[in-house]
């Protein structure tokens, strides 16, 4: 693989809400982090660990109390760069019903490009491409409220895509969905990364989803507590427990097997890999 190229750089970011008042909250504390082009980064951590606050800095919805965030060379504190940053980094939030503004799917996706003041033919082309990329083109004339949760989130992603972004931030965008909806959205995000080279920052409580990322960053009380490939991060079982995080089920199972004396090697992250090791250990040729 080629060298990773930085897209978003977070330097010593601190975010304090209601600074200098009795309600002061230090939500993010001295966080440094890089999001690379076309990488799939999972951001995990307990409730209130600062994930959403950090996410909102990635497209200048919040500005640093201290430190700096640079998106594709643009400093989020530069007011002139604001709209360009918001176009480059799109956000999709948890509740699919709060993000759709129009009464027809394609009109909803057109909303962003219309605000950019693009010519109608260009808007139509972007809407079509975006809906096709998320597998929703056939639903273009439907009313969004009739769609499933997973379909609504894919429309929300299409709305971001129509802006031709370089990064999509999914802030618990799968949390409210059923398993099928979750799979749809995740598959879509992985496909966008692979085909369009769009970076994805996926905030999730679901460790199975995090295990599919290129890299996992764990936040705890506003700081980066762990960072690495899924194999590196999910190997540190005790640490994760202390941070009150779940493990992917296959990592739990590997732990159980090791405690019973079965030498599981490395950190299998998919059930097939663990099953193959177990069968070999049992002397079954696979
Ligand atoms: P997470 O997304 O990991 O659950 P958040 O970034 O939402 O964490 O919150 C981090 C901390 O900041 C929490 O203590 C939360 O209560 C606080 N917080 C979040 N948003 C606000 C806000 N708008 N005003 C004041 N405090 C906030
Ligand atoms: Mg949050």
Question: Can you describe what's shown?
Answer:
With 286 residues, the protein is of the alpha/beta class. It has a domain at 37-63 and 75-229: P-loop containing nucleotide triphosphate hydrolases (Rossmann fold, 3-Layer(aba) Sandwich), CATH 3.40.50.300. The protein has helices at 51-58, 82-88, 105-115, 120-133, 149-161, 179-196, 207-211, 230-235, 237-242, 249-259, 271-281, and strands at 6-17, 25-36, 40-44, 66-71, 74-75, 89-92, 167-171, 199-203, 215-220, 223-228. The strands form two sheets. Strands 6-7-8-3-9-10 form a six-stranded mixed sheet, with helices on both faces. Strands 2-1-4-5 form a four-stranded antiparallel sheet, with helices on one face. The radius of gyration is 20 Å and the shape is globular. It binds adenosine-5'-diphosphate and magnesium ion (MG).
């Amino acid at each position: 693989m080629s060298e990773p190229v930085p897209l978003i750089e977070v330097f010593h970011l601190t975010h304090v809400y209601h600074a200098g008042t009795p309600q002061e909250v230090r939500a993010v504390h001295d966080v440094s982090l890089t999001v690379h082009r076309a990488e799939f980064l999972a951001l995990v951590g307990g409730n209130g660990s600062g994930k959403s606050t950090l996410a909102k800095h990635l497209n200048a919805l919040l500005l640093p109390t201290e430190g700096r965030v640079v998106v594709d060379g643009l400093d989020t504190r530069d007011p002139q760069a604001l709209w360009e940053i918001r176009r480059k980094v799109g956000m999709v939030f948890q509740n699919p019903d709060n993000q759709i503004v129009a009464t027809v799917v394609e009109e909803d996706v057109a909303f962003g490009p219309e605000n950019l003041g693009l010519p109608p033919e260009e808007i139509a082309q972007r809407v079509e491409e975006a809906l096709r990329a998320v597998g929703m083109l056939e639903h273009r004339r439907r009313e969004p409220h009739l769609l499933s949760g997973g379909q609504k989130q894919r429309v929300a992603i299409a709305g971001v895509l129509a802006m031709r972004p370089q990064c999509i931030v999914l802030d618990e965008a799968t949390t409210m969905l059923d398993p099928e909806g979750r799979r749809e959205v995740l598959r879509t995000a992985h496909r966008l990364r692979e085909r369009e080279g769009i970076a994805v920052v996926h905030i999730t409580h679901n460790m199975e989803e995090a295990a599919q990322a290129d890299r996992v960053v764990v936040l705890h009380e506003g700081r980066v507590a762990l960072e690495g490939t899924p194999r590196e991060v999910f190997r540190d079982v005790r640490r994760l427990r202390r941070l009150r995080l779940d493990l992917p089920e296959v990592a739990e199972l590997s732990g159980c097997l090791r405690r019973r004396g079965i030498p599981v090697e490395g950190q299998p992250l998919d059930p097939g890999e663990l099953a193959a090791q177990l069968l070999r250990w049992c002397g079954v040729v696979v």
